Automatic annotation (TrEMBL), chain A:
GO terms for cellular component: plasma membrane. It is found in: Cell membrane. This is ABC transporter permease. CDD domains: TM_PBP2 (cd06261). One of its GO terms (biological process) is transmembrane transport. Pfam families: BPD_transp_1 (PF00528). Keywords: Cell membrane, Membrane, Transmembrane, Transmembrane helix, Transport. PANTHER family: ABC TRANSPORTER PERMEASE PROTEIN, ALKANE SULFONATE ABC TRANSPORTER-RELATED, MEMBRANE SUBUNIT. It comes from Aerophototrophica crusticola. It is a multi-pass membrane protein. Its main location: membrane.
């Protein structure tokens, strides 16, 4: 058991090390110019020497992503619960939520940035990341609320449960596995939204990781570009791992999706 | 025996036009154990839901001798219908929580009820960690924790294997004798209905009506030995014959 678990953790690490080793060797052996593909060692050097700048940018991107994600979770769950209370409201608003979802974020980004103003570009990034992250939460929660066991609903009615008791003791826990699945998708999308929005905002108004990538590309500082890319991927992995952990903790022993997993 | 409930002329048409019940007349004495037997789709579940107040009849009346208040009616479905996210004790406590019973009192009543269904040491298990029979016991404990005057059971043991079903039959009878509630028990099984009941009502195929009412004057306590007794066999034959007539009527 334990040996198997260690092996499962070691195999991807070993693979990564092998790929990095081959990369380092190949770039030197075939004399690939560093502005096309720098060796891992010079990416690591860039990571260390530009650490101040990169850390600030990482922090900015992370803050915007997390804020957008939290907003998306709260607003998505709240709106879905509101929809569950009133069919009319759901019918009236859901189509607009879909419109917001299907419109490509790059297409509305310039407009949002102009409206909010370049001097408050971080707020514009936050709004755009929220727009992207919001829909999976809304649709998953809606799905979860519809999946309430009708017999349990009858039981609550039989015992004279108030509307509030039905929401918190029945609908919310029934929808929780769906909400958590939506959060996993939404966490990744919030990061993508924050990065895409920053690409659109462009030239130096925002200074997150996306801007570091654009800037490094323009200056042909490819090791730094790779370092920023690496940090972005690390953020994404971290968010995903964190949400998986939360999912496991919250569903723990009661839900099929989490029982019997290593 | 005073009447707990008299159902007269009960008709129910679902939106969409299905007539599930058409003129059901039925009386229910206090402390009785009544089984409802009838072909699938004849409206047994519909009738239980109307009695529970979950569904309003299209026409007809329910008149109560003593109208059960909040928590006065317990309901057990064919599925255990437990909250998967809540431990056994929290599931059983649900009716008390919804009624705002103080925590300490509720916990004491839950512990007592769990002991009665033989699940005391499982109070902190989750439903998915229990067997089908144990889950059904949890559902029974939840239905009885409010000390209801009336317990409605909708084919509760139909999905269980025979050994478990026989055991639960005996436990249900013991609970009924100890706690004195009135029971309405829906089943497909003629044998089960005779074993458990003080009366068996037969329903015709849809739209359902009560077409026969057979008293079961077998003495208590009833044990496994009863299943091979002659008078038990004779009553099973009577109920079977009445059921066959009820289904034949529809076919004619
Ligand atoms: N919610 C519903 N809407 C429409 N028809 C229903 C509904 N529930 C049950 N029925 C129909 O009413 C009839 C009686 O159903 P039911 O009371 O569940 O029968 P039973 O429990 O005896 O099998 C069936 O024909 C069923 O299809
Ligand atoms: Mg039924």
């Amino acid at each position: 058991m334990v040996a198997g678990r260690i092996a499962r953790a070691l195999v991807p690490l070993a693979l990564g090390a092998a790929v990095l080793g081959f990369w380092e060797w190949a770039v030197r052996a075939w004399e690939v110019p560093p502005f096309v593909l720098p060796p891992p060692s010079s990416i690591a050097t860039a990571l260390a020497s530009d650490w101040r700048i990169l850390a600030d940018s990482t922090w900015l991107t992370l803050t915007i992503t997390l804020q957008a994600f939290c907003l998306a979770v709260v607003s998505g769950v709240a709106l879905a619960m509101l929809f569950a209370q009133s069919r009319l409201l759901a019918a009236a608003l859901y189509p607009y939520a879909v419109v917001l979802q299907v419109t490509p974020i790059v297409a509305i980004a310039p407009l949002v940035i102009i409206w909010v103003g370049y001097e408050r570009v971080n707020l514009a990034l936050l709004i755009l990341a929220w727009v992207v992250a919001f829909f999976p939460i809304l649709s998953n929660t809606t799905l979860g609320l519809a999946a309430v066991d009708p017999n349990l609903r009858d039981l609550f009615r039989l015992y004279g449960a108030s509307r509030w008791q039905v929401v918190w003791r029945l609908q919310f826990p029934s929808a929780l596995p769906y909400i958590l699945a939506g959060m996993k998708v939404s966490g990744g999308l919030a990061l993508i939204g924050a990065v895409v929005a920053e690409f659109v905002a462009g030239s130096g108004t925002a200074s997150g990781l996306a801007w570091r990538i654009i800037e490094s590309g323009n200056r042909l500082n490819i090791p730094r570009l790779f370092a920023a890319l690496f940090l972005l991927a690390a953020l994404g992995v971290m968010i995903f791992a964190l949400l998986s952990w939360v999912q496991k903790r919250l569903l723990g022993r009661w839900h099929e999706s989490e029982v019997g997993r290593p | 025996m005073p009447d707990l409930l008299t159902v007269s002329g009960l008709t129910l048409a679902y939106p969409g036009g299905t007539r599930a019940l058409d003129g059901v007349d039925l009386r229910l004495g206090e402390g009785e154990f009544l089984s409802l037997v009838g072909p699938s789709g004849c409206g047994k579940s519909t009738l239980l839901r109307i009695i529970a107040g979950l569904l309003a009849p299209t026409s007809g009346t329910l008149s109560w001798g003593r109208r059960p208040g909040r928590g006065g009616i317990g309901f057990v479905f064919q599925e255990p219908t437990l909250m998967p996210w809540a431990r056994v004790a929290a599931n059983v406590r649900l009716p008390l929580d919804l009624a705002g019973v103080p925590q300490a009192e509720a916990d004491a009543r839950v512990a007592e009820q769990l002991a009665r269904v033989g699940l005391f040491e499982f109070e902190s298990a989750f439903p998915r960690e229990l067997s089908g029979g144990m889950r059904m016991r949890v559902a029974l404990a939840r239905a009885l924790v409010t000390k209801p005057a009336l317990l409605l059971l909708d084919e509760p043991f139909a999905a269980l294997d025979e050994i478990t079903r026989f055991k639960l039959n005996d436990d249900l009878l013991a609970l009924w004798r100890a706690e004195g509630f009135t029971a309405v028990f829906v089943t497909h099984s003629v044998f089960e209905s005779v074993y458990l009941s003080s009366r068996v009502a037969i329903m015709s195929a849809r739209p359902g009506r009560v077409v026969a009412d057979i008293p079961i004057p077998l003495a208590h306590p009833r044990t496994a030995a009863l299943r091979t007794q002659a008078d038990y066999g004779a009553l099973c034959r009577d109920v079977s014959a009445a059921l066959a007539r009820a289904m034949g009527q529809e076919a004619a």
